[in-house]
Write a structure and sequence with these properties.
One of its GO terms (biological process) is DNA integration. Keywords: DNA integration, DNA recombination, DNA-binding. Pfam families: Phage_integrase (PF00589). This is Tyr recombinase domain-containing protein. One of its GO terms (molecular function) is DNA binding. The protein is mainly alpha-helical and about 210 residues long. It has a single domain, classed as hpI Integrase, Chain A. Helix content is about 50%, strand content about 10%. The chain is built from ten helices and seven strands. It has a three-stranded antiparallel beta sheet with strand order 1-2-7. Bound molecules: zinc ion. The site of zinc ion has 6 residues, from loops.
């Protein structure tokens, strides 16, 4: 079996969606729950693990913000159940606790218009309190995104981390600068933001050449 983590790391950058592919992906959505997962990942840029742990309390509908906490109790995932230690034995994560991948992952994300309605549907109209109650395993989110990507006939794999990279290019195309992109995506350094700004530029150039 392909190691998913390695696969995603190597493949994310090649699998960032173009504008036409985003349109095809959104057109291929058949259910509200698919819309929640696809738009929820694509238009927040949250890591799959963070999206999986999102709770109603993260979402501030009045101020249109999503706040990723520093830590959160989780009794579900194997990775959350286990405590984590440094080599010298200091605990960096308590047992039964979820933490963002890095400290920069703790952040406030603007709720863009594209995702407002579907978050309102999931948390307010359906009355869900957490994502985990509907998608117990991260694999469920991954499978949903893959399924919609295949249905959209996109000729490369579409998975949560590729949607996160795609959100970075969406921001770049809207002229957000590297610092804003870094903070929104929760990166420690600006290097990945510069990469996605350049990638967005290449995408724009390519589509210009194809269409002119
Ligand atoms: Zn967990």
């Amino acid at each position: 079996m392909v190691n998913r983590e390695n696969y995603e790391k190597s493949a994310t950058k090649e699998n960032v969606l173009t504008d036409d592919e985003i349109e095809a992906l959104l057109d291929a959505i058949k259910t509200m729950y698919e819309e929640f997962v696809v738009k929820g990942l694509l238009y927040t840029g949250l890591r799959e693990s963070a999206f999986h742990h999102m709770k109603e309390s993260w979402v501030d509908f009045d101020r249109r913000l999503i706040r990723v906490p520093r830590k959160q109790r989780c009794m579900v995932c194997d990775s959350c159940k286990k405590p984590r230690y440094t080599k010298s034995g200091n605990e960096t994560k308590a047992a039964n606790t979820w933490v963002p991948k890095t400290s920069a992952g703790t952040r406030t994300i603007p709720m863009v218009p594209e995702v407002q309605e579907i978050l309102d549907w999931y948390f307010n109209q359906q009355g869900h309190k957490t994502v985990i109650e509907q998608y117990r395993w991260r694999q469920n989110l991954y499978n949903t995104v893959r399924k919609v990507g295949k249905r959209a006939k996109i000729d490369h794999p579409v998975f949560p981390h590729a949607l996160r990279g795609t959100f970075a290019t969406i921001l770049a195309k809207k002229d957000f600068d590297m610092w804003e992109i870094k903070d929104t995506l929760g990166w420690k350094t600006i290097q990945p933001a510069i990469f996605y700004i350049n990638l967005a530029g290449e995408q724009i150039k390519k589509s210009f050449e194809e269409k002119w």
